[in-house]
Design a protein that fits this description.
The complex is a heterodimer of chains A (about 525) and B (about 325). Chain A is of the alpha+beta class and about 525 residues long. Helix content of chain A is about 50%, strand content about 15%. Chain A has 3 domains: about 40-130 and about 270-295, Immunoglobulin-like; about 140-215, no CATH class; about 320-510, no CATH class. Chain A is globular. Chain B is about 30% helix and about 25% strand. Chain B is globular and about 60 Å long. The chains are: A alpha+beta (about 525), B alpha+beta (about 325). The interface of A and B includes residues 1, 502, 503, 514 and 516 of A.
């Protein structure tokens, strides 16, 4: 027999959750609202070094303040390696070295980056300009092409364009336009060979310019617009002109640095240089940091971060944090679905299907999410009705449906590429098995209870998913659950309380309205 | 909205949440579910207790046994094939005539021997079972329904569901198949639900797709004021069913056979709430009344008498 009263348990959970929360808020000073004023980002690079018999040594270029980005704080984690950081010629370098290693080491570098407001950025720039010493000499040139053939072709391209453009900027722009166009000239084609990468093309342009004594260099940085678990670099080019480096964004063909991009390093070489160590892997992850409040609170109370560590997710590696940020909101979404089902009385296919769909909407955005989801399910249903006539056994039939769903997704990817709709690619993140089961159940309901019931439940699920989506994308809620994981206890308490809700469902008012 | 809430409360309408918490979870221990979900078990228990059920001709549990279907029905004229753990009346095939090379079903359609074997194979693979679990097929006696319902049903077999609490009948509903329901006695598929006065076994108004109807849409005959034969036996049978399974809150499905009288079809662990609409009254008040009186109600006779005395619609 079930205990009839869950009130004490619910009260205990709520009190515990609220208690921990107020301790964190009032005692430690973790703010309830994130600081959105200057956006904060956390960049983490993880270099994985396989065991080595020799003395491995890893050098990594570190980023410096640039544009509107200010590095507030840097951390290193070095496992068995010794770390030295050095600054030279306006560059900053971290060097890890070790004796021979017998296990795999992970070398972490973490930078806390603050986005400055426009005024702050301007003030900083002025300060830098005034403090900088005059540098009369032009910077060093990059190496020209190694192959004689390429050098001659480069010379030829340069001469051809020189006839039209006499100044550095338009000349460089024309060169880039020719090199990056979808159909480059035969000359460029023979330089590029089979290499199609943007990085390679930009490097070729810097070499052509270098041969004519125009300093130009490759620049790489990270786009800080959304959290990423395996971020890749954005490349552009810088040309030296009038005593300073000018950025050129190859994606927009303008003399500006790429939007919202944090410059990490200039030059052709990658950020990590490994000596005497084979198999080095670098992984860069980016996460939003809307909790500078925690750091500030720790400082203020002179608490060591460790003492907070037991409760604070921000002490975990950035890559893991990104996972938890998503994970923590799932129970809240599920509680919301439970509410919509048991108190409002909406019908959905499967209990947690709407939550999973809502999570995948994060990638596709709501509009495309709904469009793609409905198209896939409709397509699946359509084919499923045909399968019904073949009288297949259950499990093979499900397998066939799953295969069809994946074919549908592949088609969307092709269509997406053709019409240039990015969200169509994210469709692969849809929970495929769940969609398959949805199609199966929807078709069974369709057969047994009619089209109306099936569509009602299908649309109901979609509405619930859309509403849940609004919860899982809320940055305020994400921040709250991230900073106060004890909120999960409150969610637990509420779901237990909801489990004993005996009242009517809103839809029952309509169902039983005939009785007076 | 609050006025609606008040109205529902006053009428004692039972909502799903309350049904699940106050009755299903409270009175039906999970371990007893298999007794109701597995129709072969239910049938066995009923037979042991001397309750009449449609005779079981045989069962098929594996694909290898498919061929034995022919020998099971060798000396019969007609039969019904059902999934053992089916739900919602799905997967039931009614055969009315056996021919040399196949069968005729209730709508007169010819079904070849292979087609019927495929259907049984689907049952075995769990196409119609709860949670798609592998299942058994049962072959049983075809009910010839009592002529009293001939005027108000379209094909199929009308059945009577009586909801009981600890063996005390609470409310009952007669379900009449229609053309739209495809001969099935399932309310949301389009069967008509008819309320029943528990004291006399007299039919009340019918509800069809949430609308009150007084005549059967296919036959045009009046639904109201028909007396259900063997009513006392029906109530007794429903009351006894509690002793079979031990499920405190159950819906007992019964059919009236022309020759054999009331037969227990199956037992439902979470009976639907639509019978409140058909009876124009709520379950809660009746259930509360029963819960108060339960300590005094020991024998089946007492329980049936209590229901007849208290749950009559006409004063």
């Amino acid at each position: 027999m079930i205990k009839s009263s869950v009130t004490p348990l619910v009260c205990f959970l709520l009190a515990l959750g609220l208690g921990l929360m107020s301790y964190h808020h009032f005692k430690i000073g973790v703010p309830l609202f994130p600081d959105f004023s200057g956006e904060g980002w956390l960049i983490e690079s993880k270099v994985t070094v396989s065991p080595s018999d020799k003395k491995p040594s890893i050098a990594m270029s570190l980023p410096l303040d640039n544009g509107k980005y200010h590095i507030e704080n840097e951390n290193f984690l070095s496992d068995d390696f010794a770390l030295a950081t050095l600054s030279e010629k306006g560059r900053k370098l971290a060097r890890w070295s070790s004796k021979k290693t017998t296990r795999t080491n992970n070398l972490y570098y973490r930078a806390q980056i603050k986005t400055l407001s426009r005024d702050e950025a301007k003030r900083k720039q002025l300060l830098e300009v005034s403090s900088r010493k005059e540098s009369p000499r032009e910077p060093k040139l990059v190496k020209p092409f190694e192959k004689e053939k390429n050098r001659l072709i480069g010379e030829r391209i340069y001469k051809r364009l020189r006839k039209v453009h006499s100044y550095r900027k338009p000349l460089a722009k024309a060169l880039l336009e020719e090199a990056l166009s979808e159909n480059p000239s035969e000359d460029f084609k023979s330089i590029f060979g089979k290499n199609e990468s943007l990085k390679f093309k930009l490097t070729a342009v810097t070499r052509i310019l270098a041969a004519k004594n125009i300093p130009a260099r490759l620049a790489r940085g990270l786009k800080l617009t959304k959290p990423q678990r395996d971020a890749s670099f954005v490349y552009w080019i810088q040309v030296y002109h009038g005593g300073k480096w000018l950025d050129f964004d190859p994606s927009r063909y303008v003399w500006e640095s790429p939007k919202n991009t944090f410059l990490w390093k200039t030059g052709t070489k990658g950020i990590v240089d490994a000596f005497d160590s084979k198999r080095v892997k670098t992984l860069i992850s980016i996460s939003r940091e809307d909790s500078p409040g925690i750091a500030a609170a720790v400082k203020k109370n002179r608490l060591k971060e460790k003492s907070l560590g037991a409760f604070s997710i921000s002490s975990l590696p950035v890559q893991t944090q990104a996972v938890y940020r998503q994970l923590l909101l799932i129970p809240l979404g599920a509680l919301f679905v439970a509410f919509l089902r048991n108190v409002i009385g909406l019908k959905t296919f499967g209990t947690f299907m709407p939550v999973l769909i809502a999570l995948s909407f994060r990638e596709t955005q709501l509009f495309w999410g709904i469009v793609l989801f409905s198209s896939i399910v409709s397509f699946g249903l359509f084919i499923r009705f045909y399968l019904e006539r073949l009288k297949l056994l259950l499990v093979p039939r499900l397998t066939a449906t799953l295969t069809l769903v994946i074919i549908a997704i592949l088609m969307f990817a092709f269509l997406g590429q053709y019409f240039n709709i990015d969200p169509a690619f994210s469709v692969a993140l849809f929970p495929l098995v769940i969609i398959t089961m949805t199609i199966e159940r929807m078709s069974v309901v369709w057969e047994e209870a009619g089209a109306r019931e099936a569509l009602q439940q299908g649309i109901g699920s979609l509405i619930v998913a859309a509403l849940t989506y609004l919860i899982v994308i809320s940055r305020q809620l994400e921040y709250l659950f991230f900073s106060f994981p004890e909120l999960l206890l409150i969610v637990l308490g509420l779901s237990i309380a909801l489990g004993r809700y005996k009242g009517y469902r809103l839809t029952e008012f309509f169902r039983f309205r005939e009785i007076s | 909205m609050f006025s609606t809430l008040k109205k529902l409360k006053k009428a004692g309408i039972l909502g799903i949440n309350s049904r699940n918490i106050d009755y299903v979870l409270k009175y039906n221990p999970r371990k007893l579910y298999p007794l109701a979900d597995n129709k072969i078990r239910t049938k066995e228990l009923a037979s042991e207790a001397g309750i009449e059920v449609p005779d079981l001709y045989g069962t098929i549990s594996s694909v290898g046994e498919l061929k034995s279907l022919r020998s099971i029905v060798a000396d019969k004229n007609d039969f019904v094939i059902k999934p053992c753990r089916g739900c919602g009346g799905e997967g039931i095939t009614v055969i009315t005539e056996i021919q040399d090379d196949g069968y005729l079903d209730i709508s007169g359609k010819f079904i070849s021997r292979r087609d019927l074997q495929h259907h049984v194979a689907n049952i075995l693979h769990g196409l119609f079972s709860l949670g798609s679990r592998p299942d058994q097929a049962m072959i049983e006696y075809r009910v010839r329904f009592d002529q009293v319902f001939a005027e108000v049903s379209y094909k199929g077999v009308p059945d009577i569901r009586i909801v009981t609490l600890k063996g005390v009948p609470v409310m009952a509903i007669l379900r009449l198949p229609t053309k739209i329901s495809g001969g099935k006695a399932n309310l949301h598929q389009g069967a008509i639900g008819v309320g029943i006065d528990l004291a006399k076994g007299k039919t009340l108004n019918g509800v069809w797709f949430n609308q009150t109807v007084s005549d059967h849409p296919d036959t045009g005959k009046a639904i109201m004021d028909r007396i259900i034969p063997h009513w006392e036996t029906l109530l007794t049978l429903a009351s006894k069913s509690y002793g079979l399974t031990g499920l405190g809150y159950q819906g007992v499905d019964i059919v009236l056979d022309r020759d054999r009288g009331p037969l227990l079809l199956e037992v439902n662990t979470r009976p639907g709430l639509n019978l409140q609409i058909a009876n124009q009254t709520g379950l809660t008040l009746r259930l509360k009344k029963i819960e108060e009186a339960l300590p005094q109600l020991i024998s089946i006779e007492e329980k049936v008498a209590f229901a007849k005395e208290n749950f009559s619609h006409i004063g």
